[in-house]
Design a protein that fits this description.
Strand content of chain B: 15-25%
Strand content of chain A: 15-25%
CATH superfamily of the domain at 10-96 and 178-264 and 276-329 in chain B: P-loop containing nucleotide triphosphate hydrolases
Number of helices of chain B: 13
Strand order of the largest sheet of chain B: 6-7-8-3-9-10-12-11
Number of strands of chain B: 12
Largest sheet of chain A: 8 strands, mixed
Largest interface: A-B, 44 and 41 residues
CATH architecture of the domain at 10-96 and 178-264 and 276-329 in chain B: 3-Layer(aba) Sandwich
Oligomer: heterodimer
CATH topology of the domain at 10-96 and 178-264 and 276-329 in chain B: Rossmann fold
Chain lengths: ~350, ~325
């Protein structure tokens, strides 16, 4: 019974809620002679991050940058090739640590496709009660909690509890998915493009609701999106990814106000202008993001970077603290050999 | 007689589109009228189910004939489109009007190379020889700024990146010198840094070739980047239509205002978003009142009495809202 009650804080407010160190995930592509693996997709490469209690960490990047793989690694929906995770002081899936079962109770996820995320044969209340019952809550109590949650996400339980997913609109279904993620009283919710498929007027309703729920349940969010405006609106800190690596991470004001990495700058200035008198004249960078199979040597952004020099192909730039944020660029690393380095 | 140079390229008048199946009827488009000049770009902005794509596809009659009811008129350079059938329709498609879609990966046939698909279209519409068609195809890839075009013509769609495929699709659409290009969310599936490249390309080609363009999107920023005029659709009707500056600076319809207010942009951090309450209406019955009234904070009795007409608020700025236009403008 204990397992379905909210988990109380253990390490205090200063201890990070989640620490990940050196996470790596490479997907082999079978296809060589006799099914031998000839190529690998380097989806996530030696990525470390920490998430503070109560914050919203935004994750941005283009397709293939590994942002969804990071989400799945943190949930352990896929197993990392390398790396460790610590949840509020407890190592994950290690002796003396917490089990994956416990991790997945404290960390929950909401996906982009609201319809594919729901079982079409279960009513809404059955869907919401499923996990609490699996974790040992009695049927009646699980149902009562589900109805309660429905009201919290703005759906009248008398009207919606016994409906099936196909009877709901996209916005309503995504509210149900959010309610389901909260059913086990998690501490961290990973939102992977959770509002991306919604229309703008509905997206605003759901964003307002996410802000309220975070406050009410004392949640921590990892908010993954390709929409830079929405990430700016919601996040306290922002992590920018490119081809499986973090290129820049820091407070939202620093990333949007004074971006340091050429990729972050390009990404921000690729946003369509909202002013017809100041339309975009020139695309900030050319070409598409390269394939994460065989990424470029050294700095992975160098093939599209207007400032690339020899050193960028030879050495990989490590994340370096520049004061307001951390940046992985030779132009910001003292003595890196780049002519623009300090 | 009007001067043919100033005559509109496309005139849509009171277009209604209804889909009828044995189970249900959907009134997708309920009286859309607009005109497009040669060399002009009209952005049509709307949310899912607003009828923006249905309007666009009706210009090519792409909906299945047996369960679609059209009424009203669509005139391209004076020719009525809706009565067209068979070879007349086939000559219209690709030759005078062509279309680019959201997902270039599914719009191309995966088992033929890009070159085979472009040359097939050229030969069908112009009767050019195989060699001439290949020459033209190579020029087209150059036109859409695809590097090493001769090699790219031999590539299969899956061998190209998303941005490259969308450029190839634009090349295919332009292969027979159409006068009107229809774009249905062509950059929605693309990454941010690629989207802006494709938007700029469409804008440049439009100017270079003096194309009429109708660009359907749900993204206000994208519409502002490409359009001369913007029309906003809701529940199968245009609720507002005006020049891009009029629409951004002084939107008149409560829905347009709500859409602009609920679109997140920089500098809104910490503020509560002004969401439009409720959801779009069910389109199983033809509207008998203002379709937006149930979600509108300014709604009053006469909004429910009859569908409001599209009236001019200022020169070239049309709004479908009764009475409140003046007070709303304040």
């Amino acid at each position: 019974m204990d397992s379905v009650l909210p988990v109380t804080d253990r390490g205090g407010p200063v201890q990070p809620l989640l620490l990940a160190k050196g996470l790596r995930k490479h997907f082999p592509i079978p296809g060589g002679l006799l099914g031998r693996t000839t190529k690998v997709v380097r989806a996530v490469d030696d990525l470390s991050l920490s998430v503070a209690k109560g914050e919203t960490l935004g994750v941005v990047g283009e397709s293939g940058c590994g942002k969804s793989t990071v989400a799945r690694l943190l949930m352990r929906l896929i197993r990392p090739d390398k790396g460790t995770m610590v949840l509020d002081g407890d190592p994950v899936d290690e002796p003396h640590g917490i089990t994956l079962n416990e991790l997945r109770r404290q960390v929950q996820m909401v996906f982009q496709d609201s319809y594919a995320s729901l079982n079409p044969r279960l009513t809404i209340v059955e869907t919401l009660a499923f996990a609490p019952r699996a974790h040992g809550l009695a049927g009646a109590e699980a149902k009562a909690r589900s109805r309660d949650l429905l009201a919290k996400v703005g759906l009248d339980p008398n009207n919606f509890a016994d409906r099936y997913p196909h009877e709901l609109s996209g916005g309503q279904r995504q509210r149900v998915n959010i309610a389901r993620a909260l059913a086990l009283r998690p501490r961290l919710v990973i939102l992977d493009e959770a509002v991306s498929a919604l229309d703008k007027s509905v997206e605003a309703q759901v964003l307002n609701m996410l802000v309220d729920l975070k406050e009410e349940f004392g949640l921590t969010y990892i908010f993954i999106s390709h929409d830079l405006n929405v990430v700016q609106y919601l996040s306290d800190r922002v992590m920018v990814m490119y081809l499986g690596k973090i290129v820049e991470i820091g407070a939202v004001e620093a990333i949007y106000g004074d971006p340091q990495h050429p990729y972050t700058r390009a990404l921000l200035s690729a946003r369509p202008s909202m002013d017809p008198r100041r339309r975009t004249r020139e695309a900030p960078i050319q070409g598409d993001p390269p394939n994460p199979i065989d990424p470029p040597s050294g700095c992975r952004f160098r093939t599209r970077c207007p400032f690339a020099e020899d050193v960028c192909g030879k050495a990989e730039p490590l994340l370096t603290d520049t004061g307001a944020q951390e940046v992985a660029c030779h132009m910001r690393i003292r003595g890196s050999g780049h002519t623009r380095a300090p | 007689m009007t001067d043919p140079k100033n005559a509109p390229l496309l005139e849509v008048e009171d277009l209604h589109v209804t889909f009828v199946t044995p189970d249900r009827t959907v009134h997708a488009v309920n009286g859309v009228s607009f005109a497009l000049k040669r060399g002009e770009t009209l952005g049509i902005l709307g949310e899912s189910g607003s009828g923006k794509s249905v309007t666009l596809r009706s210009i090519l009659k792409l909906h299945p004939e047996h369960r679609t009811r059209w009424s009203g008129s669509i005139r391209l350079e004076g020719d009525e489109v809706l009565p067209m059938k068979g070879s007349a329709l086939a000559n219209l498609r690709g030759n005078r009007v062509s279309m680019i879609f959201q997902e270039p990966a599914t719009a191309f046939d995966p088992v033929f190379t890009i070159g085979q698909q472009i040359t097939e279209t050229i030969r069908r519409h112009t009767g050019k020889s195989d060699a001439d068609a290949w020459k033209r195809a190579k020029e087209l890839l150059e036109l859409v700024r695809i590097p090493s075009p001769a090699q790219r013509l031999k590539a299969y769609p899956h061998e190209m990146s998303g941005g490259m495929r969308q450029r190839a699709m634009i090349a295919l659409a332009l292969s027979c010198n159409p006068s009107l290009l229809l774009a249905d969310e062509p950059t929605t599936a693309l990454d941010a840094t690629v989207q802006i490249q494709v938007l700029l390309l469409i804008r440049e080609l439009q100017r270079e070739l003096d194309l009429g363009v109708i660009f359907v999107t749900h993204d206000i920023g994208v519409a502002v980047e490409v359009s001369d005029r913007i029309g906003v659709m809701y529940a199968g009707k245009l609720v507002e239509l005006g020049g891009v500056e009029q629409m951004v600076d002084a939107p008149r319809h409560p829905y347009t205002r709500g859409l602009l207010a609920s679109t997140v942009h920089g500098g809104m951090r910490g503020q509560r978003l002004e969401a439009i309450p409720g959801a779009p209406p069910d389109l199983s019955a033809a509207p008998t009142a203002c379709s937006f009234a149930p979600r509108c904070k300014y709604a009053e009795a006469r909004c429910l009495a009859a569908p409001p007409p599209l009236t001019a608020a200022t020169e070239g700025h049309l709004v479908r809202c009764v009475g409140r236009i003046d007070t709303l403008a304040a």
